[in-house]
Amino acid sequence: MTHLLYSLLFAGLYVYLGLGLALMITPPALTRYRILFAPLAGYAYMTLAGWYFLVSGFPGTDNYWRLLCLPPLAFLGLGFYRTRRDTPFAPLFNKDVAIASASGLLGFAIAAFPSIAFRKGLTAITLGNADVAYYSMMARYVKGSVHDPRSYLLANPQISSTALDRFGTVLTTAFPSSALS
Question: Mean of the per-residue pLDDT values for the chain?
């Protein structure tokens, strides 16, 4: 049950981070669906801003997650202002959004069922899959450490190169765990 709660909290965090951007950048033809773009925009914002925080030498996400949450407030204000000014305010939720959301939740439930129902290993889908532990190790580094290219690459070249190649995936674990802990 905790798995479902944290999944919903993560989704809510991505919607918060991206709703203002989605309101501002969604083309007029897609205004009915703009809330569906919010999690994607939130993920893109979190990854880009998180990358700049990491390479700028800020300590881990435990220390700067609050700073990453401030600009979305301004984005929300600007997005709602622009939406009100340019077009008549259309509701964020409508029948099409409800159908798309229900389909997404059904897909999530189908994909998450094995890991919720059978807790015998790291993952329930494949035997011996250690992706959870592997990405958690990299996320823990991003969550609590200052980025130093010399020590980062010397500590474990395989892990550090994977963390840099797949930074968005690593930050997807590190940032919400900092914000929700």
Answer: 77
Pairwise CA distance, residues 19 & 22, whole Å: 5
Would you tell me how many other CB atoms lie within 10 Å of the CB of residue 51? 15
Helix (H/G/I), strand (E/B), else coil: 19: helix
Helices (H), 26-94: 34-55, 61-69, 71-86
- Tens digit of each residue's pLDDT (9 = 90 or more) over 41-100: 999 998 888 888 877 878 878 888 888 889 999 999 988 888 776 665 567 778 888 898
Q: What count of other Cβ atoms lies within 10 Å of the Cβ of residue 57?
A: 9
In the block, residue with structure tokens 């959870």: 132
Instruction: Give the torsion sign (CA, 156, 56, 140, 18).
Output: negative
Q: How many residues does the chain have?
A: 181
Residue type (1 letter), 177: S
Instruction: Give phi and psi for 99, each to the nearest 5.
Output: -65, -45
Whether 175 contacts 68, CB under 8 Å:
yes
- Is 181 within 8 Å of 7 (Cβ atoms)? no
Cα–Cα distance for residue pair 179/9, rounded to 1 Å: 10
